[in-house]
Amino acid sequence: MSTMSNAPASTAPAHDTVRAWLEEADRVLIAAGAGLSAAAGYDYGDTERFRELLPALYRLGLRSRYLLGAPLPKDMMWGYWAVHIDDIRFSPEPNPLYRRLRELVGDRDHWVMTSNVDALFSRNGFEADRVHTPQGDYGRLQCTVPCTRDTWSSRPFLDTVLAAYDRDTGRVTDPRALPRCPRCGADVFPNVRVGPEFVDDSYLPAGRQLVRWLDAAPADSALLVLEIGAGFSTPGVIRRPMENLVRQTPRARLVRINPAHSDVPADLGTRALSVPLGADRLLDGLDP
């Protein structure tokens, strides 16, 4: 017997339900995965964007930004990281989808928890001290040893790499531009969770504050969890915790927005809504 329930055949009732649940909510927790940023224009699997940004790697046969573990020499790998992070983490333009999401939440008491490491929430109107990013942030680098619990802004390192980057070859032409730990001289890496060496110290306070926010809710407070674009790459970060949160919170509801993996646990019954859409299409349907 299946323990998951499917979305309704028509998405129109889903839009109506989301509107109604938002109106009834005292608090909103946005829980977001990679699918949200993909809908916002930062799709790691976008082959055409990959070719535009990284033509040398494309000519080598690579087709997407999922390059962790790719057998590239260090100068090419840092060329990739510099271009990729500069594009997704430091792009100065406001993002329309994230801005619309912020408008949707309005003045409701809210928090954000996201597995994304692109800071698109805090760069588009959400308060940075109400955004929990347990997987890290491309805006920081760390020692790979690590010899210290300190992390450093990635911007100066990336600027040095980009100044020595040859787009035609995909290589960093000056070995001195390759980032090193300023403390011990070892390799550095983006401060994101890829293994046990991840330095998560700076992300823990926000996690504790989020727990306090949830615990401090009055017993009759209505919580709406808007889970957007969280699939099965790292289900233990967003997807499973959100299901358990709603199970344990009597007046909580879950809206799961995902074009491919929108199924919700059957035991949540009418407190969970499956929306088989991308965030962009959902917000289109919610616009007045």
Automatic annotation (TrEMBL):
SUPFAM superfamilies attached to this UniProt entry: DHS-like NAD/FAD-binding domain
GO MF assignments: histone deacetylase activity, NAD-dependent; NAD+ binding
Residue span, Deacetylase sirtuin-type domain: 4-288
Signal peptide: none
The name this protein goes by in its record: Deacetylase SIR2
Superkingdom assignment: Bacteria
Family annotation (PANTHER family): NAD-DEPENDENT PROTEIN DEACYLASE SIRTUIN-5, MITOCHONDRIAL-RELATED
Coiled coil: none
Keyword Signal listed: no
Alphabetical keyword list: NAD
